[in-house]
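Quick one, T. Sequence first:
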Amino acid sequence: PPPKYNDLINFFNMTCTVARCLKKDWPLCAPHAVCHSFERVAVWANVLLTRFSITTLPESYVRTHLVGHEGLATLAAENPLEGLNRARCKRGLALVTECVREVCRDSAELKKWLKAHSAPYG
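Structure tokens:
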């Protein structure tokens, strides 16, 4: 069956929950997984808040995170986000900012993490 609006909101909330967990446990995870999770929250929050009208993210980001979720993306485009759901979306964007700040807070720790996972940095 096609997704319903509540499925879209639940999907976004679950995406934020994953990012919230990674905010604390990022050193235990691979850098690409952490970045992908934070990027996913930013993309879906942007789609939900703008309904695709003023999406400012690169098309590649949007494509990466919406492929396979076209039904949810359609619901996001067709339905205005109001009240509590709009506030949650804004908090989702704030969460991404906090997460990135946490990861980048200590450059020595960041380099150690990237080196441990053989990820490039610079």
